[in-house]
Amino acid sequence: MSEQNPAYIQKQYEFAAHIRNPSLHPRPRDVEERRIAIYRELFYNNIEGFISSGFPVLRGLYEDADWHRLVRDFFIYHRCRSPYFLEISREFLEYVRDERPEHPRDPPFLNELAHYEWVELALSVSEEIPDWERIDAKGDLVQGRPVMSPLAWLLEYAFAVHEIGPDFIPQVPGEQPTYLLVYRNQQDEVGFMEPNPVTARLVTLIQEYPQKTGEQLLGQITEELQHPQPELVIQGGKQILLQLKDADIILGTHLE
According to CATH, where is 1.10.150 located in the chain? Predict the structure, then answer.
């Protein structure tokens, strides 16, 4: 805070510093304790309420004192870039991912679980819109070039985050990565799918090679797998394409 600031701005800084961290910054002398206590509780409780509702599984894994210590640290140390309430969850995610030092009471999957819980809100409010003028919704997914929905996200985690809860609190990552497809369909409903490795690979290839047909992508997977019966992989892949289309994860094919 610069001493060149007008007095009223300096007072605002003093007020905000106390609200954020009252143990370090005393209240302004001309504000009585009874009044400023209302603001301390109001600001913190609002932030804590948004975070608890946005990360309910994570909240359930913490004892009350540890949870409030985590939220208080976020409240004190993180500098939010957005003034919107909907962005508080993203700001909290950035704090635990990029800024929070290691803490013995934090679970080893803190970052991944926080991200997984944030994704549902992020997709529900996303303003991404498919370019339907360039999509054939009834196109042949095998002979044509499949189009992924911009509202379908393939996620990879070291921990099985979708299974974590009070009865399952892993301390080490799984032997294999966990893949999850989170998507918003055309009814604006958010859904979750746990794809097998072949489905996850197919989705990845669709995103990486939009110029390839479904048949070419399935052929590439067959070569990668070195499967003794490639026709089974191709047939299974065709069914996967249809299932993804039914879920609005694939929207159709590229129009030429």
Answer: 7-106
* 8 Å CB contact between 190 and 182: yes
Domain with CATH 3.90.930.50 in the chain: 132-254
Handedness of CA 163, 169, 174, 177 (dihedral sign): positive
Determine if the pTM surpasses 0.70: yes
CATH code reported for the domain at 7-106: 1.10.150
Contacts with 108 (C-beta within 8 Å, 6 or more apart), sequence order: 159, 170, 171, 172
Per CATH, the number for 132-254 is: 3.90.930.50
Please write the tens of the pLDDT for every residue from 56-90: 999 999 999 999 999 999 999 999 888 788 899 99
